Amino acid sequence: MKVPKAALVCVGSELLSGQVNTHQAWLSVRLRRAGFDLTGEASVPDDPKAIRAALKHALSEADVVIACGGLGPTFDDITREAACAALDRSLTFDPRLWKVIRARFARYRMSVPEENKRQAMRISGAEILANTAGSAPGQLLRARGRTMILLPGPPSEMYPMFEAVLPRLVRLHARRVHPASFSVRLSGVPESIADERLDAVRARWPEARFTILASGGEVSFHATVLSKSAASAGATRARLRADIMGAVGEFAHGEGDVTLEEALGKRLKERRRTLAVAESCTGGLLGSRVTSVAGSSSYFLGGIISYANAVKIRRLGVPARLLDRHGAVSAQCASAMARGVRRATGADIGVAVTGVAGPGGGTKKKPVGLVFLAVCGPQRAERTRRLEIHGPRATVRDRAVTAALRLTFDALGP
Amino acid sequence: MKVPKAALVCVGSELLSGQVNTHQAWLSVRLRRAGFDLTGEASVPDDPKAIRAALKHALSEADVVIACGGLGPTFDDITREAACAALDRSLTFDPRLWKVIRARFARYRMSVPEENKRQAMRISGAEILANTAGSAPGQLLRARGRTMILLPGPPSEMYPMFEAVLPRLVRLHARRVHPASFSVRLSGVPESIADERLDAVRARWPEARFTILASGGEVSFHATVLSKSAASAGATRARLRADIMGAVGEFAHGEGDVTLEEALGKRLKERRRTLAVAESCTGGLLGSRVTSVAGSSSYFLGGIISYANAVKIRRLGVPARLLDRHGAVSAQCASAMARGVRRATGADIGVAVTGVAGPGGGTKKKPVGLVFLAVCGPQRAERTRRLEIHGPRATVRDRAVTAALRLTFDALGP
Predict the structure, then answer these.
(1) Which residues 376-395 on chain B approach chain A with CB closer than 8 angstroms?
(2) pTM score, whole prediction
(3) With a cut of 70, which residues of chain B have pLDDT below it?
C-alpha cells in the first residue's frame, strides 16, 4: 500500500535566529497515526523567493504540504503571497473574511488595525480554515491532486486548526490507508534494553513503521501498521498492542502520550494515597514534575527541599550521626529523608532523592551521577534504589527524577 | 558588505518522527555572532536520495553547508555516502582514523564492533574533525569556494566540534566581515514593552540585524552589526551596547547568554547571602530553577513545598486565621510563607510563590493565573508582587518562577 506523504515548510526568520522549532515533532506523530509519512521539513526566512522555492519543492515531493507561519498582519507575513506565486494563483480581498476578523476584534472590544486587512486576503480557489484562537485564518488549496494548507505559526493557533483539518486530509489522501497505531511510554528501563526487546516485535511486523525516542529517562515507542480495511484495523491494532506489551509491558507506565507523572497521579488517585517529596540534588524538580499535572493537589501535599545538611537534620529529622557515618549521598540518608517528609507532611507516601548532580562535588567513592532514592509507605514498606547516571548536571537531575517517579509508581503496586 | 550565508541540513528519520530538533536554534545564534547568516534549514530522513538532494540544494544557496547527523556506525548512517554523491567524491578507508577510533574504545576498555569501521571512511579531500565526546569523526570539505562540514547528531558531540571548527569557517568565509555583536537577557518586562523601547535603537542602526525572543517570562535580545574593520569592531560594539542598555538596561539581568538563575546566583555569592524558597502553585519549580546552576549549594539552603494548606500552617507557620481571612492565594499568605521559610531554614532571604496555576481552581475573585510573590530579607525588608498571567498551566508556573527570581534579584540591590 502506498503511504501518502506530507512535507512541512516552516516560515519565519525567528526560526533561523534562535527560536526552537517544535512544529515538526508535534506534527510528525499526529501525521503518522493518521496514515501519513512526514518525509521532509524546511525552515525558511520571511523571504518571498525562499518561501516560494520551499513550497514548490515540497509540492514536487509530497501529497500534502503543510506551511506554518507568516499569516500575520504585518509586512513580513508573506506566506499567502508566496503560495500564490508557487501555485500561480491570485490573491483577492474577501469581505466575508474581513467581517469575521472584525467580529473577533469587537468581541475583545478592540479596534481593528488597518493592517489586519491583509489577513482577509484569500487565495483564489482556497477554502478558509477557521482560527479559534487568533485572527489569522488558515487556507486549504487543491492543485493537481495535491493539497496545501497554510496554518498560523503560534502553536496555540496551529494545533487546533491542524486537528480540525486532519480528518479532511485523511479523506482526501489517506482514505484507502487504514493505520493501526499503538504508542506506549516506558520508564525504569534503558533505551538500549527496550530496543533489544522490541527487535523481535519489529521482525514479526516487517511492514510496520516504528519509532523509539528516549528523553530524560523515559522511552516512548510508536508503532503504525497499515491494515487491509477499516474493519480490520481494530483487530490489527489489538494484535500489535499485545505483541508490544508482551515484550516491554513490564516497563510501561501508560499507553498513548501519557507521561509518567500523569500515570503516577492516576494511580495515587485510584489508591486514595497522598504523596510528599524530600529532595536534595534535584532541588524541587521532582515536586515540579508531580505538580505539572493539573489536579495534582488532590494527592500531592508538598515536600521539603533539603539542599543543605542543616535542613536535612532540622526539617526532616535525619540524624546528624547518620550523615557523619554514611554521608548525605547514601541509601541510609535517602531512607531517613523519605521517612522524615512523610512525618513532616502526614502523607501516605514519602519519596526522597539525594545524589551528586555535578559537575563538581564528586569523589572517588561518590562520583558525579551517584544518586540514591527511597520510597517510604504506604504502610511501613520501604524501597531504596542506587543509580549511577552518566551525563551533565541536567541529565543527572532529569533521570533521577524519572527514576524516583517510577519507583513510587511501582511501590503503589500494579 | 556581503554577509556569508550558512545552510543547515539535519539528517535523521527520528527528526521526522517526534524528536524535537534544537540544532538550528543553537547554531543560528553562534553563526550570527561569527558574522554568518543562517539562511535555511532542512530536515531529511535517513534516505540517500533525500540527503543528497538537500546537500546539493544547500550548496547552491550557501557558502557554508553544515550537515548534522548520520555519522554513526550503523547501516542507516549514510551522510558520508550522500555527501560523496552530492560532491562527486569517493570514500576510502583511512587506517589512521581507524586507529584513533580503536584507541578511544580501548580507553573505555571496550572491544570495537566491526561496524564502527564505517566511521573510519574518509571522503576524498576531506579534513578530519576530531570528536572529543564520541566515536564519530567529523569531516570538512572544500568545493568550488564553498565549505561543507559533516558533524555528528548528538548535541554533546556536535557542540564542541562546531565550536572548534568555527574559527576555521570564519577564516575561510568571514575574514572580511567584522561582526560587532551584543546580546542581553531581560526579565520583569513584557516582550511588547521591551520591543517598543528597542524601536528607537533599531532606527539608529539600520544596517544591524536584531532578534528578540521571549520565553517563559524572559526576553533575549541579540544585535549584530558589521563593522568596517577588525580594529573598529570593539568600538562599534561598545556604542551598540551603550545604545541598547540605555533603552532596556533597567530590565537586564545579564549580558550574553546568562540565565536569570545564574545572574541571581552570582549576586547572592557576591553579597554572601543565602536563599530559601517556599512554593505553593509552582510545586518545586522555583527551587529546581535555582539549583539548575552548578555550585548553587554555596547559597541555596533549601525550601518547603507547601502545596496543601496544612503544610503551610505546620511547616511554614502560616496562621490558620490568615488563610481563613485572605485565602492561600493572597499577598498576606505569600509574605507569611516567605517569612516562614526564612525561619525554618535560617536563610538570609526567603522567597515565596502562591497562586492559581489552573486550568481548574479559579474563581471570579481569584482567577486562574493570579499569583502572589513575596521576598523577605535580607534584614527585615519585604517586597510582595501581584501577577495576572494569561495562558495554560505551564505558562503560569514558568512566568511565576521567572518573576520570583527577578523579584529576588532586585531585592539584592544593584
Answers:
(1) 393-394
(2) 0.91
(3) 1
